[in-house]
Design goal:
Blueprint (H helix, E strand, L loop, with lengths): L7 H7 L3 E7 L6 H10 L9 H7 L5 H12 L5 H18 L1 E8 L11 H19 L2 E9 L4 H10 L7 E7 L11 H9 L3 E6 L5 H11 L3 E4 L7 H10 L3 E3 L1 H6 L11 H6 L4 E3 L4 H4 L3 H12 L3 H14 L4 H17 L2
The structure holds adenine and zinc ion.
The site of adenine has 11 residues, from helix 4.
Length: 343
Amino acid sequence: MTEQHFGPVTQWLSGMPKAELHLHIDGSLRAPRLLQLAAKHSVSLPYSSVAEVEAAYDFSDLQSFLDLYYLGASVLRDQEDFYLLMKDYLEVCRVQNIVHCEIMVEPQTYLPQGVELAVVLEGFDRAIAEAKSDWGQSVGLILSFLRHLPEADCIAMLKAADPYREHFCAIGLASAERDFPPANFQALYREAAERGYALTAHAGEEGPPSFIRDAQQLLSVTRIDHGVRAVEDEDLLNQLAADRVPLTVCPLSNVRLCVYENMSEHRIFDLLDRGLCVTVSSDDPAYFGGDLLENFAALESDLAMTKDQALLLVRNSFEAAFLPIAEKIALDDRLQDYLARNP
Ligand code: ADE
Ligand code: ZN
């Protein structure tokens, strides 16, 4: 959907300062850049044109997506690649007025290619520094672990990241959920808590509501990535609402990965209406057909999102951010300023 086709609520949102809290940087690698880097490093891929790449992005579940996601990320090899990847996404932030973003970085993905964390962060740092100085972009990085790998490997990566501790605001847990429950990662989260990281994890995307509860109780997370399957458990819903535990919901992702058959079945506004701290993010925009605004546009076109609902989703994203309170207040001031000019 192009901007001129957005409905009135999404057009109003487009100029509004917003936050995106659930974005895998590898999921922002678009087809043209993917093909360019594959050619640069002579990585052979099963596609040779943008159209072929996009035709392959037809997923039946999370695993069918992850297979192509890790294949795509395998073209990232040197500092310049990581610079370009981050620069491309931060340019989306500039265009869509995503003034604060929290980005998942998954260093274990690059290890089979022999790429060390130092190389990754050198590239990312350069792009982030430019975006900060060029237009004041606010960025947090989340050190995200791959739950299909053994916990010992995740802990080894956590320790390898110790020299770069100040680069990250939080840790996260991603990849295949169903067979890899939160209970498997208690030592990892204990180690991360000792290091002072904020804690989040994917839970209740494909996995059952009990994984959301376990992520909270066993891993001490204060935020849940996805969490949409909470709708199946009344007690859990009440507790998440009472505690204002943020959910980073990714509507286009949920439809493309067949969590819901279509957007009209998505329960995001049930969650919001029950008082949960629901936010909207794009997850893997290159794979799921849209960035943050396109996610809002789908909520407007298929679920009749109102201005009040949209504003609440944006306010929640500021509340849910891993930011010091003074920075949250500054975001809110910018929002008030926008609303005064664009009621
Ligand atoms: N890694 C990238 N996108 C993901 C998702 N939607 N769920 C779990 N892991 C992911
Ligand atoms: Zn995700």
